[in-house]
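Now for our target.
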Amino acid sequence: MKEVKDSIITMTELVLPNHTNQLGNLLGGQLMHWIDICAALASSKHAQRICVTASVDRIDFLHPIKLGDVVTIKASVNRVFNTSMEVGVKVLAENHTIGIQRHTNSAYLTFVGVDVNGKPVKAHEIIPQSYDEKRRYDQALIRREKRLRLRES
């Protein structure tokens, strides 16, 4: 068994011109790429093995991220099931010139740890400690049940 805090990964990226659209906003696909990498690292850190993306539950775009913003992406494992684990990701964007930081995105992804043959492997259990970790742990089960219902329909 492992604790949530042991799976935390924080990435920082600078939004450059090649990351933006014609409006000077970060491309959604670029952000999704960064989110997927950060979440994969968190799941791999927890599982101590290569983990692959099984699904992207949702990515909420709350505010645009602008050219020149510093993006901080924080991911951690919310809950482990059998071979799969849900990873929660929070994205913050900061404009250093005016000192404003905003929560711009949230995302939930599911990863599966695999062996050298690419076969799923049972994941270590996770122990939530704080109130927020326990809340995310409980909510992860609700999201999983919803994902499974949608898959059946």
Observations:
- The first strand starts at residue 2 and ends at 3.
